[in-house]
Amino acid sequence: MERHFDEQLTVLKHTLIKMSALSEAMISDAIRALCERDTSAIPRIREHEDQVNRLQIEIDGICLRLIALYQPTAGDLRFILGAVKTNGDLERMADLAINICEEAERLLENPLPGALTGIQEMAALASLMVKESLHAYVNRAVEQARVVLLRDDRLDDMKRHITADMTSLMQKDPGVIKQALDILLVARNLERIGDHATNIAENTIFVVKGLDIRHHRE
Amino acid sequence: MERHFDEQLTVLKHTLIKMSALSEAMISDAIRALCERDTSAIPRIREHEDQVNRLQIEIDGICLRLIALYQPTAGDLRFILGAVKTNGDLERMADLAINICEEAERLLENPLPGALTGIQEMAALASLMVKESLHAYVNRAVEQARVVLLRDDRLDDMKRHITADMTSLMQKDPGVIKQALDILLVARNLERIGDHATNIAENTIFVVKGLDIRHHRE
Q1: Nearest C-alpha of chain B: how many angstroms from A215?
Q2: CA atoms of B101 and A118, how far apart (whole Å)
Q3: Where do the domains of chain A lie?
Q4: Is residue B16 within 8 Å of residue B77, measured between CB atoms?
Q5: Contacting residues for B186 by C-beta, under 8 A, at least 6 apart
Q6: Helix boundaries (H) for B71-176
Q7: Given Cys at both, which of A136, A159, A186, B131 links A144, Cβ 3.0 to 4.6 Å?
Q8: pLDDT value of position A216
């Protein structure tokens, strides 16, 4: 019984990692479409979205079966409930990557109003947070989870910076309002991806310490 | 044992309803601050946020204990896992109300660039969706959940309409770019509140039918 439980728990972890890798790929493909004005990756983003949606249903099913069949308690039960939440966060990240993809498609219709270095930096940081938060979660690695929480403050700063830049650009040149607005939305979507990585990092600390640090950041 | 389980399940439902009522109050107070330019409700919004955060932790604890102590199966287990998700959605709604509150505070610094009828209509619809989705969830009422799913399409249309209006306003009068941008963000936050109500409605159908309709809308 215990061996079966451990096997199923390993399946759960692998499925979460697979889902997170797909969400990361979607983010980087959407940013490539935007920054390199290369639409070739867009059909792949849509395929990945379908896979993410299927995995989301699969993961909820695994969690439900694990609880119903093995009645786990304490840390294992917290891990499985945390996986239900993490699953939701990963799916939301994929949705946000789709938003970025749509903004990229609109932005391809006109020349860009300026360099997108800030967006590329934000995307790199957000992707790193996704990878690290998932790694922290499946390995119950509290220290790595804390690193993610710190990175989120930096990501928020970057978003504020881009928002200010785009607002003043719009004021100077109303001809680029539509494009600047879309870039601003890309930055907001990246910030929200970081928020979901932060949720996963907080779940990690809850699973390991049995301690709820949401709304009580050290 | 069964009686205790039912009692605890009732506590869970009441706590979810309490949390949802707080989120609804936060939304309507934030919209009042914005549309009636009345800041008196802002301290109450912050108090409600603290209460929502405490309830979120409490609800996760109730769910964890219900599973660990009573090993529920089938519909009851799905209800409790769904409550963990619904809890996350309600907390996110309260966060979005805080965003609207911050946008309202910024908008109070300058005259409004026009009437906010569209925003008030969106807010009324989003609040209705919150109430209905929670009611559907705790009563396992599938038909009411389906109504929420339909309303979400209307809410998205309203947001698109406001986005188009604000974009053309900015293009005509660059002097109101900042304000128009904030109104646009309010509309997006209301749209996202509707998305969370939609998640709760989908959870309802999953709990009752054991059927996952996410990504397979009828």
Answers
A1: 7
A2: 27
A3: 2-209
A4: no
A5: B34, B100, B103, B104, B119
A6: 74-107, 117-138, 142-172
A7: A136
A8: 57
CATH class of A2-209: mainly alpha
Indicate the DSSP class of residue A38: -
First CA to last CA distance, chain A: 39
Which of A120, A195, A83, A129 shows the shortest CA–CA distance to B96? A195
Q: In terms of Cα–Cα distance, which of A54, A45, A51, A53 is closest to A27?
A: A45
Q: Residue B24 corresponds to which tokens in the numbers above?
A: 């609804």
How much of chain B exceeds pLDDT 90, in percent? 86
Report the largest interatomic distance among the alpha carbons of chain B, rounded to a whole angstrom: 68
Distance of alpha carbon B74 from alpha carbon B53, whole angstroms? 29
**Length reported for chain A:** 218
Q: B residues 112-171 near A, CB within 8 Å?
A: 167, 170-171
Q: What is the CA radius of gyration of chain A?
A: 19
Distance CA B86, CA B83 (A): 5
CB contact under 8 A, B214 and A88: no
Maximal CA-CA distance, chain A: 68
Vertex B103, ends B100 and B108: CA angle to 5°? 125
Residues of B in Cβ contact (< 8 Å) with A214: 53, 56-57
